[in-house]
Amino acid sequence: MDLYEKIKELAAQKNISIRQLEEKLGFANATLRRWNKNKPSVDKIQAVAKYFNVSVDYLLGIEDDKKPRFSPELNDAIENAEAYEGTPLTDQDKAILRGVIAAYLENRDKNKG
Question: Is Nucleotide-binding included in the keywords of this UniProt record (predicted)?
Answer without folding.
Answer: no
